[in-house]
Amino acid sequence: MAQPRDVTVFYDERVLAHHPDTNMDFLPGRLDKRVRSILSGLNVQWKYPEHPGRITAIMDLLARDPIPGVRIEPGKAATPDQLSRVHTTSFLDDIFSLRDESAWLDVDTTAVSPGSVEAAEVAAGTAIAAVEAVVEGRTNSAFAMVRPPGHHAEPVRARGFCLFNNVAVAAAHAQAELGCERVLIVDWDAHHGNGTQDIFWADPDTMFFDIHRAAPFYPGSGALTDVGAGLGEGTTINVPMPGGAGDVAYLKALREILVPAADYFKPDLVLVSAGFDAHWYDLALNVSYEGFAAMTGIVQEIADKHCNGRLVMVLEGGYNTESLSHGVHAVLRALAGGTLAEPRVCGMEEVDTAIDFHKGAFEPDNTD
Question: Which residues, given as ranges, of the chain have pLDDT below 50?
Fold first, then answer.
């Protein structure tokens, strides 16, 4: 058992108010017609995958199986000034104009419902609250339990179920208000964090490390050769993975690419865009619960080495509620100091068991 640590989960029920329903009336227009055409061409009825049940599944599991050292605190809404550090004023004005409305925002089927704008403000503000608590030393680490997710949101565009870029807003706040000069953002969601990359593309004070399923998997960005530009050249690090890649490959990438990069960068704060759709239940990659816990151990070691343990997780994707809730639970247990089991190659344990069971069964009978 590792040294116990305090972990604070920041959660605000207002994030549940974002609930687009594809059967409801949306603001009419050309985009609405295009999206309706796409949905009508599907063989099955399409339901909005990013729904409130994702969060309630996580919180219900935490209530049934509490983790010692983990406590829950409320979040808060981000202000327009805080959001404007990473999004343009015109974009924010457009989003704010949709308060209490239902509308499609793009053909990625990003949509808003009447409670979505407030939910997005609270998601970004709750990420800020988590960062403030860690930087001020009120908790060893923190997990912002938020939705809608954020890492696809670009400076001028909502995309991929994301309205505001929560982790980017939190990083910019840490730099502007909390004295953190260098921020490391690790994104292990199955999908590339195109929005986060765009925001910090030329920023030498923010290192962005993203391990994801390679193009043409959505959103199709995050090539190995995408390394940033200008003064920020080298502070963007992409590790595109083939479909089905799992624990062994992920941990090797973190240990042999992320760790030395962090040693070079020496962050004052570590943020994680923690998506859980890399679990095999989401059918994109092959990471296990033990794999997520082991990755948590690596980023915790980075934070311990360089920035007095300052580590904040911000929830991104994960759409199978079972793997999402258990993945988050495994990460929180690791953050709280739980024992980390080294993941094995999927199936090896079962093969070893079968070998022991069948051992000797097919050898010649030497009783003569």
Answer: none
**Residue whose C-alpha is closest to residue 328's, from 54, 50, 18, 1:** 54
Residue in the block written with tokens 């990471």: 287
Among 53, 130, 152, 167, residue whose Cα is nearest residue 332: 130
- Nearest CA to 153 among 108, 96, 207? 108
152 is catalytic: yes
Question: For residue 366, what pLDDT is reported?
Answer: 62
Contacts of 198 (CB under 8 A, 6+ apart): 154, 155
**What's the rounded Cα separation, in Å, for the pair 188 and 282?**
14
d(Cα 209, Cα 273) in Å, to the nearest integer? Answer: 10
* Averaged confidence pLDDT in the chain: 95
The one catalytic residue among 18, 19, 87, 152 = 152
What is 42-98 written as a DSSP string? SSS----SS-THHHHHHHHHHHHS--TTEEEE---PPPHHHHTTTS-HHHHHHHHTT
pLDDT of residue 368: 56
Entry pTM: 0.94
The predicted structure's pLDDT at residue 141: 98
Nearest-angstrom CA–CA distance, 226 and 247: 24
